[in-house]
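Consider the subject:
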Amino acid sequence: MSLTSILSAEAIENAVKECQAPDSFSFKKFSQLCGLTSKSPKEVKDVFQILDEDNSGFIEESELKFFLQRFVPGARTLTDAECKGFLSAADDDNDGKIGVEEFLIMVQS
C-alpha cells in the first residue's frame, strides 16, 4: 500500500510545497491540504502504518524527522523544533512517541 492509494498525489504535492521553508510545518494545515482530515478512521490508520517505518506500532521522533519524505521523496526533513512540536502536540500519554490512536485524534481535531 502507498500513500497515493489513499491520498491524491496532487494534494500531497501541494501540502509538501506549503511547508518547504524550515520551521513552517504545521501538521493541522498539512493534513487538511493533503486530504487526510477527510479520510475515514481506517484510512488514517492505514496512513499511520505507512509512516511507521520500523513497524513498531509507534511513530518515534527519529521517524518524524523524515515525515515529509514519506510523502514525497526528496522533500526536506523536519527541523528539531518541528519534530518536538509535532511530538508534544500528539503524544497524549507522554511516552515520547505517537501511537495510532494519538495520530487519529490529532488528525480528527
In short: The mean pLDDT is 96. The chain is about 50% helix and 5% strand. The first strand starts at residue 58 and ends at 60. The chain has one domain: 8-108.
